[in-house]
From TrEMBL:
It is a multi-pass membrane protein. This is Solute carrier family 25 member 32. GO terms for biological process: nucleotide transport; transmembrane transport. Solcar repeats lie at residues 20-109. Pfam families: Mito_carr. PROSITE patterns: SOLCAR.
Length: 149
């Protein structure tokens, strides 16, 4: 009899927590992270090429952003412009997905039972809390060796 009462209260606690979860926000965040990364990765590649261009003769010299992009395009084509995109897509997609997931769950939790909207400071605090949650999941749970865990 006690086991049934405990499981009923335990399941109601989980339903209370997950009542605010909307998976659409997770999907929207992942999609936004992936698409923004796909659109801007060639510029990130140019930034990296300029950072490692230290004047050595074995590395190509670039005169500017357009020269760098056209040189990469001529040498390696589209594949060259998206060299190294896979880890960036995973990182951006998952981190933005988690952020939007937590942000909207936190906002929903705070607005439950309220007729008025959140104040600006409550939106900012929700965003900070979502950032902390997504950072914790991304960095601590998936990279425990960095934090000595």
């Amino acid at each position: 009899m006690t086991g049934q009462g405990q499981s009923a209260s335990g399941s109601s606690a989980w339903s209370t927590v997950f009542r605010h979860v909307r998976y659409e926000n997770l999907i929207a965040g992942v999609s936004g992270g992936v698409l923004s990364n796909l659109a801007l990765h060639p510029l990130d590649l140019v930034k990296i090429r300029f950072a490692v261009s230290d004047g050595l003769e074995l590395r190509p010299k670039y005169n500017g952003i357009l020269h760098c992009l056209t040189t990469i395009w001529k040498l390696d084509g589209l594949r060259g412009l998206y060299q190294g995109v896979t880890p960036n897509i995973w990182g951006a997609g998952l981190s933005w997905g988690l952020y939007f997931f937590f942000y909207n769950a936190i906002k929903s939790y705070k607005t439950e039972g309220r007729a008025e909207r959140l104040e600006a400071t409550e939106y900012l605090v929700s965003a900070a809390e979502a950032g902390i949650c997504s950072w914790a999941v991304w960095n601590i749970a998936w990279c425990p060796s960095v934090y000595g865990i």
